[in-house]
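Journal club prep, notes for RB
We'll compare a predicted complex against what the paper describes. Inputs for the NAP case:
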Amino acid sequence: MAKLDERIGFIGGGNMAFAIGSGLIGRGIVKPSQVLTSGPHIENLARWREIGAGTTDENNEVVEHTDIIFICVKPHMLEPCTTALKNTYVPSAKDGNKLFISVLAGTTVKSLEDKLTFFGSSEIKIIRTMPNTSMQIGEGCTVYTGNSHVTHQDLEKVHLMLNSLGVAQQVPETMIDAISGLSGCGPAFVYTIIEALADGGVKQGVPRQMALQFAAQTLLGAAKTVLLTGKHPAVLRDEVCSPGGSTIVGVHELEKGNLRATLINAVEKSAQRSAELGKK
Ligand SMILES: NC(=O)c1ccc[n+]([C@@H]2O[C@H](COP(=O)([O-])OP(=O)(O)OC[C@H]3O[C@@H](n4cnc5c(N)ncnc54)[C@H](OP(=O)(O)O)[C@@H]3O)[C@@H](O)[C@H]2O)c1
């Protein structure tokens, strides 16, 4: 797999940042010594130090010493974070080459351009992404879009990084909130489904650990079958529902419980909430 020579920064070292940073290090895309992460509480960045990355409680050090900078704070923290940077960051001639990558839900490219004004270049390069935490194990989903200053080479580097941690796709910005509801928030929906399937197993007498393992493996197997065969999930479902059999009885229960409508609603509400978060 190709490697990057650039230094990678993270402003905010929480769950999403760690999923990306540890994933990039774990996959060998960058060496730990190329990574620098900042956050207000240095003690909360211990896991970064454990994987060999540098840490600091000064965001301006990350901007100064790295080339590709992931912004990984909560959307409502963007404003205080960039305002503080305006007071501390000393602009440099090299600023124009730096690339900012936002993972913030709902926060538009325009809003990022308006807020990242601490910088020495008016032509700031910005990529907006919507990743998910499964990137930590190389099975993530990320969409991304760039502003007008981002070059083809920048997009190639971003694609290399994000795609090495799962699948990545460039999309129009208008699609990003929808993807946020689907795959950004989706892992939480699926964890709930796994837990519920396991509970069903436990209710029928399967030991808890085994029930969890089999529930998760069942999802993994079904997901891989969809991806590898290219068959529509409804076709695959029909294939396992023999007439008068046990599976169709269970599928009927899912329909009575509105599983499909509930998941559609969950994606819709999460997408709407993502868009709202960026407006606050
Ligand atoms: N988690 C997901 O599944 C997911 C998926 C897609 C996108 N996202 C996006 O990822 C972003 C981060 O979410 P998260 O789940 O990773 O949240 P999180 O775990 O709470 O991480 C946020 C981090 O920001 C740090 N922080 C707070 N104020 C800061 C400041 N002024 N400067 C630098 N760092 C600061 C926090 O440090 P302290 O804890 O020390 O205060 C914390 O480590 C959000 O914008 C979210 O929309 C998350």
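Talking point for the session: The pocket of NAP is lined by residues 11-17, 38-41, 44, 59, 72-75, 77, 80-81, 103-105, 130-133, 184 (CB under 6 Å).
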